[in-house]
Amino acid sequence: MTDFPAFPPGFVFGAATASYQIEGAAREDGRGPSIWDTYSHTPGLVAGGDTGDVACDHYHRYPQDVALLRDLGVDSYRFSIAWPRIVPDGSGPVNPKGLDFYSRLVDELLAAGIEPAATLYHWDLPQALEDRGGWRVRATAERFAEYTAAVAAHLSDRVPRWITLNEPWCSAFLGYSIGRHAPGAREGRGALAAAHHLLVGHGLAVRELRAAGVREVGITLNLDRNLPATGSAADLAAVVRADTQHNLVWTEPLLAGRYPDTEEDTWGELITGQDFRRDGDLELISQPLDFLGVNYYRPIVVADAPLREADPALRTATDNRYAETRLPGVRHTAMDWPVAPDTFTDLLVSLKRQYGRALPPVHITENGSAENDAVSADGAVHDDDRVAYLRDHLAALRAAMDAGVDVRGYYVWSLLDNFEWAFGYDRRFGIVRVDYDTQRRTPKDSYHWYRKMIAAQPGRG
Ligand code: FCB
């Protein structure tokens, strides 16, 4: 086929998942509870009352899932390690059975010729640490470093690529300000403290991974392309506040070693006089990285809006005087997210323009779409919309590379349909369908398309 975008030799194609979304076995082999167990078991918080207790039962079926990856022909598999399997109480003894599961998974991947890429934190904080303040307190970052050291001691010889945190925006702001993710809090300074302590935890984990001698260390951010609803000065100023909350709060400390100069305008009294930052933190946070992981799904359209809560003591950290509006004239996915691949190119090109040589090579660590797909009479899943989404976003990625952005890899989200957080099992992002009653896996048309695309790359197949 000639209509597949061609990527340079050595470009990494992969697929991604996360522990709580696929593993199940929530109470097995000494795993402790995480904030997502608590959140999903609280009535009314997750659609359909769904939990990750069983999920895709990947904990028991991982050999079958690795075989799906092998047949897909991917170079790399991005998975996450469940902290509460390794340190069930958040601090104290390490659970050998937890380490053993990931050790077996890694060996299975290596035997299939697939490079493991491990994420240390994809949101499943041990509940015991939340009970002691969670990411609001600095001690959690220190516990994260200890957990990282324990994992690295076991896996650093076989896992070349490491990601400290997945999408800290979601941990800090969906978790502690909007309350739509675990632990479900709606706070102002608590959420800003969480954002800072996540970055400190990242910095401490980078040190541990370097000490263990791993090949590549990075962090994954969900950077957003914020578009103004109109060309008015007020909407353009709202975009700056949205950029600060979504992007600059991470990229400025990580890549430039400074806090955003727009933070006072964005957070006002919530950020002034805060006491959670310490001397030396910026040096820790801005240690050089081997790559930046970027997750990208959709643009956000931003309009100016009044403060929802005038009293700073009651205000949340995401009340930044803007509102999200709809992007007209484009298809929306089952998440109701607009499909606009050109914004993916724009995001990457503007990131390069902003940070220049300070921007490390990029890996797209997630990209994909949720669609209302179903099994047809012929037994297949004809997910044409997902195929189009992937095709157009890979072409948009290629365009960013042609414009000078150094991108080294792309991981489709997700290998499997899985537990989509507050949406439960209702939203399907997999290129493989999972029947949750039987745990049967059915590769969708998008799986076959991705396999052909990889095989058609110059010098392969
Ligand atoms: C990202 C998450 C991932 C998945 C996708 C759809 O924000 O990292 O776990 O939920 O969105």
From TrEMBL:
Its EC number is 3.2.1.21. It is an enzyme of class 3 (hydrolase). Substrate binds at residues 21, 122, 166, 297, 413, 420-421. The active site is at residues 167, 366. One of its GO terms (cellular component) is cytosol. GO terms for biological process: cellulose catabolic process. GO terms for molecular function: beta-glucosidase activity. Keywords: Carbohydrate metabolism, Cellulose degradation, Glycosidase, Hydrolase, Polysaccharide degradation. The keyword Hydrolase applies. Pfam families: Glyco_hydro_1. Transmembrane segments: none annotated. It catalyses: Hydrolysis of terminal, non-reducing beta-D-glucosyl residues with release of beta-D-glucose. Belongs to the glycosyl hydrolase 1 family. This is Beta-glucosidase. It comes from Streptomyces shenzhenensis.
